[in-house]
Amino acid sequence: MKAGKGDVALVYALGGILFLITAWIYWDYYRPEWKGYQSGFRAQIASRFGEDRVRQIPTGLQQVWVEELNRADRCVTCHLGVEWEGMENAPNPYRTHPPEILKTHPVSRYGCTICHGGEKYATGVASAHATASPHWEEPLLYGELGKAYQINERPALLQINCNICHRADKQTDGADYINYAKQLVEEKRCALCHKINGQGGVIGPDLTYVGDQTPEHFDYSRLPGKPSVFAWHVAHFKNPKALAPESTMLNFSFGDREAQALTMLMMSWKRTKVPTAYIPRAKMANLPPAEPQKESPAPAGNK
Amino acid sequence: MPAEKTIWKQLTWPWKPESELEAGDSIVRNILLHWFPSKITLPSLSYRYSFWLGTSSAVLFAILTITGVVLMFLYVPSVERAYASIKDIEYTVAFGWFLRGLHRMGAHLMVAVVFIHAVRVFLTGGYKNGMGAHQNRPVNWIIGVVLLLSTLLFSFTGYLLPWDQLAFWAITVGTNIALAAPLVGEKTRFLLLGGNQIAQGALLRFYVLHCFFLPTFVLLLFAWHMWRIRKDGGLACVDQLALEQKREKTPPVKSKTYSLLGIAGTRTVHVETALVDEDRHAVNSSPYLTRRLLLVTLATLVVSSLLTIVVPAPLEEPANPSVTSNPAKAPWYFLWLQELVADTTVRISGLTLNGALIGGIIIPGVLVGLMLLWPYFDKSSVRSVGVWFSSERKRQNLVFLIIVVLILALTFIGTFLRGPYWGIYWPWEAWPDLPKHF
Question: In a designed cystine with B341, which of A168, A230, B47, B359 is the match (CB 3.0 to 4.6 A)?
Answer without folding.
Answer: B359
